[in-house]
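Sample pair:
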Amino acid sequence: MRITWKNAWMGGIVYAAGDTFATLLTDEFLYQRLVGMLLLGGTLYAWEIPTYFHYLDRRIQGKSLLSSLKRMLCSALFFNPLWIARHLIFIECFAGKWQTIDMDILLLATHSFVYALPVALLVNYMIQNKTPLAWRYVASSAFSAFMAVYFALSELLFG
């Protein structure tokens, strides 16, 4: 699948906005990180996520409860700890902290995945089964932006 203008613009803006809001809450705002997230959301993510969602739509058809649950699980598992770790590595690189990246990022990504899983399952169910295919990437980006703010607030409130 190719990148659409809508996915590139909307994904870039939504990823950048969510991350920027989170960095403003934690006093970690950097312009280069903002630009990096804008480019990431508008290029790589605007290609890979909609491509996977299209794959799921072709692979798992039907409106049965079983089909709906399969789409939900496959979508939630796509954003697994390795995907989250890669996302965190991008963020560290955009922030100029590439030298601080180590294997602990996998533990952080795993914790993030596990703690977010109950909400992620519900949201992915809605995205995969109630949102039109053409808007799933935008909806998924909005959820990611929300989660970035949630994790920033959690860090701020609970240390």
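The helical segments are 5-25, 31-42, 44-59, 65-78, 81-94, 104-130, 136-158.
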